[in-house]
Amino acid sequence: MAAIRETWNSRTAFVLAAIGSAIGLGNIWRFPYVTYENGGGAFLVAYFICLFLAGIPLLMLEFSIGHKFQQAAPGSFKKISPKLEWFGWFAAGVGFIIVTYYAIIMAWSVNYTYEAATLGWVQEEGKYADVQYAITETDLEDMAVLLEVPDSLMGRSFVSPVSADPSIVCDDPEDTEGYGTILVAFGGHLYGFNSVDEANTFMGSPGDFFFNDFLGVTSSPWDMGEFKWPLFIGFTLAWIWIVASVWKGTKTVSKVVYFTVLIPWGLLLLFVIRGLTLSGAGVGIEFYLTPVWSKLMNARIWLAAISQVFFSLSVGFAIMIAYGSFLPKKTNIAANAMIIGVADALTAFFGGLAVFSALGHHASSLGVPVSQVVSSGPGLAFVAYPHIITTLPAARVFGVLFFLMLLTLAVDSAFSLLEAVTASVKDKWKTSHRKANLTVGGIAFLLGIPMLTGMGIHILDIADHFMNSFGLTLVVLGEVLIIGWGTGAEEQRQYINKNSSFNIGLWWNICIRWIIPMGIIWMIFSEIQQRAVPYGSFLLRSQEFVFGWLLIILLPIISDLLASARGTKELE
Length: 572
Ligand code: PHE
Fold this sequence. Notes:
mainly alpha; three-stranded antiparallel sheet; 572 residues
């Protein structure tokens, strides 16, 4: 007799686990920025439309595939046709590559929790001072004298008026033209720069602590730089946490998610309240949400919305198929998918409130427009936000809580990726959960080690770019073609309806057969190279794409090898 498949402890446990996978760094450092960039409130409309027409239907599709075939992705597609097993491995492979670098970001967060407790990033007073605009007109009267300045002025910056009249200061940082150079006192001398960026680069901004001291970033992925041992400690801790969370599969996950979903929600609420009660918060929120309706007519915002929906819901990575396969016979696919999709969107919306209220406060205390301080990705989480927290009372407490929030948000995304691969291996080779978990986790751990060097963030960026633009889109396209056009959308819809508390209409077939494939094809064709890179901070040069292409080419080949490998037969 076939072994009975493990199941979730309860419906709540399943819903929380799927929400946990969906909510992650994307909700905090990607969604707010994408929203702001794409028309604020107008983007939210596009986002919700894409959520209901593409995101939630796909969740239903993935859950129902897993539920129907009682297998993770490779096994499920094998049951559809033995020729398709490789495709399931391809999906799991995309997830596997992602977890190798997701753990790196967790490692940064583990170490930054310590940096927050000790305010490590401001240790060297002045060195990491932010170069700001015109602080004062004094001291600028006589250039000769200014060539030597007292150490107390270290890190201060000034904008020198071109006119000889020192009382004319630049008060509009957007328009420094005509005001000559930006002067910065540093090491006893006054230096002149043409732009704030130039000055920041020279001086060492808070970003320098992160990129230079903490990561030791090199200039290209071909230059390895230093191995960061402190990061190795954070990395090991992160992996122990990830592996332990799925130690006994769904049994452990079912308990863990109550903490790893509810804690970050609680902390997020705290940061929203803290943010909204700061002076200047309103300015930030205005930036975040003021709708620019005309942008709805712009194709780019729809593209941004659909990619954000996919990324955020963790569809296209084999996760939701594996999670669906652990559902008990009697379940409620349609309602669960709705709850998960909406909960993820709300978390992202609140993430934006927390981020933009703080940015608004920061901008108004500097007297600059919000556009000057916005950032996303690591720049937001490891540079801007910590910097803002430092200026507030109880900085250490809020700093530690902020990184705890990032970690608890990220950990369930990481272990969901691991579990999707572990379950695939277990299905095929009938190994014990512990063995599969340790093997897959162990390989991912080893593959992550090169990313603890100075070239780490470059590799991370390239892998991330390729997995999220090509990997995800190809998997989703494959899914909707195989089901929507192959086995039949109608058949799948009836299956979902049989296992749901309410019926979904024919609209679902249209989404799966037409809307999603057209969206994806459009995504692939529309200048995919230039799409925002989630963790992006570096411009990718063409030779660096070689590495990314290699991943995309190797992945189907490896998937095919795995599919052809002989599995272990179930004892009948
Ligand atoms: N959905 C996660 C987020 O929003 C990201 C993620 C992508 C997680 C792929 C797992 C797999 O951050």
